[in-house]
What does this fold into?
Amino acid sequence: MRQPKIIVVGGGLAGLMATIRVAEAGVPVDLFSIVPVKRSHSVCAQGGINAAKNQKGEGDTIWKHFDDTIYGGDFLANQPLVKRMCEAAPGIIDLLDRMGVMFNRTSEGLLDYRRFGGTLYHRTAFAGATTGQQLLYALDEQVRRHEAEDRVKKYEGQTFLSAVIDEGGVCRGICAMDLRSMEVKTYSADAVIFCTGGIGAIFGRSTNSVVCTGSAQSALLQQGVDYANGEFIQVHPTAIPGEDKLRLMSESARGEGGRVWVPKNPSDARPARSIPEGERFYFLEEWYPKYGNLVPRDIATRAIHRIVYQEKLGIRGQAAVYLDVTHIPKEVLDRKLEGILEIYEKFLGVDPREEPMKVFPAMHYTMGGIWVNAEDQATNVPGIYAAGECEYQYHGANRLGANSLVSCIFGGGLAGPAAVKYARNLASGCEAVGSNVYESERKRQEEKNLALISPDGTENPMTIWRELGEVMTEHVTVTRINKDLQVADAKIRELQERNGRINLSDRTRWSNQTLNFARELDNMLVLARVVTLGALQRNESRGAHYKPDFPERDDANWLKTTRAKWLNGEIQLSYEPVDISLIPPRARRYDATK
Amino acid sequence: MPDTKEVLVRVKRQVSPKGTPYWEEFALPWRPAMNVIICLRDIAETPVTRDGTKTTPISYDSNCLEEVCGSCAMLINGQARMACSALVDKLEQPIRLEPFSKFPVVRDLAVDRQFMFDSLKRVKGWIPIDGTYDLGEGPRMAPETQEKAYPLSRCISCGSCLEVCPQVNDNNQFMGAAIISQVRLFNMHPTGAMHAKERIAALMEPGGIQECANVQNCVKACPKDIPLTESLAEMNRQAWKQALVGWLIG
It folds into this structure.
């Protein structure tokens, strides 16, 4: 039997899990990543990972986890695979525990669980407030072991440019650029698994890391890989504003008892702690008595926007509300939340154990992503698989907190063996593909570099990016109005046109970060249009997608997955039914019992 | 200096690994809550030096911008620090930015820290699980053990502890405190402990724990407050014990 070859692009949680599973199957893996994989964005996940282990005797079940996820996602997710994920979740926690993740423990030495948004159960296992970091490291260590035993070869410092697709429309490898030598090369494979993460950069500032540009997803779209539900963007309710980044303040702060409030009198000039209880407005607790501060993120975000923009109750007129943990004993804070409190303290110079934090919503996560099938993470292009945040499968119209880590590991764990199976069943492998297929793709990418480096433009990519971020944040995040979305789309098209006249301030051929960024920006603009057009078309409100002109969910017309295709150089949207075979849709309300 | 209208930044630049270093100075408009990353982005948007000469944007590593990925470590006013959490208002100006000196420069402020990842491989820095298939729950652990281990597991491989260590130099291949502290972490885990010996053996090879001269710069430089000197002492004890037992048994 011939030995297949698999490539994994992206070394976050999903990519590492896929890599481990492929290596375990005895198939060699080439793992590509922009950054050393240990520095991937998964490190930023803070609060925890969900699994219905029912370790607090509350009667939690897999079905309840499944129901919370579907209900939280406003019934837009295809249900059977979500159910499988919830079934797999307890085993995933066990696996991570065996890998050495330093989860917090109970006095009996068992894993401790905290409560998170959108559920009434303690279902979230956690390692302090740096759970993503701990999980990523555990998988990174396992991959390093496979690397030491020659089953995995890492290509760190390489960025994906395009897939190599043969005349029959089958993926046969990738084209990548070395970020030091700037050399463009192709790499053959029988199957490629994409785990390229989030798209925060198209919103300029977000809670995402620098590498989360969505460039790979966009490049794939432009090669015929469909993209689904792009308009569903999660804006996290609590982040610390910053000029370079909006730093996440995890939901776990509320899971551990943190409370969100504003002074009843917005011009109250007293220090937060000396404002008496009676003069504080705990608006989440008042508006959503059952879930209180732990309503899902879309609900909390809209509530904060309402407080600031409609009720004009932002702290001293600013776009900010208090996230208060000062009433929680310091010992508990240090044991369970130190990682995030330290971020606040370091970046603002204020101790959140002593003073309530000032927070505001920030773009955080894309529920939409590469279209994959309902069985095994395969895309519509043979040989291409996707897992993790870059695909759309698990979260519907809104993701529940602490479900992202579980979906990354589950999806990656599914994609690995699926890619191996596909590769083993291929009638003829990548070695039989003519070298011209690879060479023509390499040339196409090389020519893009040459065009960018030629010195006749006037536009600066950083400026275009800033403008893109501004228009996306203003019109395509929390509140969406059709005429504003049209303005946004026109602006993006203008930016695309200007981006054709770019002038790189760096034309060298060694470690040219400007050149790489310009290439990413080109792809970001396309993806920004997918998000905007999807939002424009969808005339309803569902989960994170909120249109005041269409305030209700409209199942008759819009219980559908948006599917973006690339046809003749244009984005075309089509719609397909959602698999609701297990839980019939019902109204989603967090202000009353569901 | 919060009311300065300009931020002065001096950057030590180098076009390639073999290039000769040179300095450039930039004057940037001050805004509240600036950090060093924001300065570098300002320069990328307007790559003009203080004296009006056009130049190239500065190469540097960054990713998470919240001090958890370990990318943006550099020398800031001579100190090993993360650029994202280095707030301009707390820095003396002109702010001097230099690449780490203990790692090969790639370009400008970007350096190659592959040595650290290779060292993690050398010391077998992992828990050797049988496989990812379902084998039930992991070993129970006292909360006390977890509370001791968790701070060690927050190491971001930034390399600050190597940068400030006089024992990391051209004449020796000392792996540095971060790696040794990771070995302590794996040896603390109930499953990891079953393989403690081979990790300790790796620590006793050239570049291992015997190179530590107990200068204790590492613990002061660590951005994550990892008790590195405690880890060094503990691993030193484990190494001596293993050496002694080996010697007694022959």
The domain at 436-560 of chain A is CATH 1.20.58.100 (Methane Monooxygenase Hydroxylase; Chain G, domain 1). DSSP finds 16 helices and 21 strands in chain A.
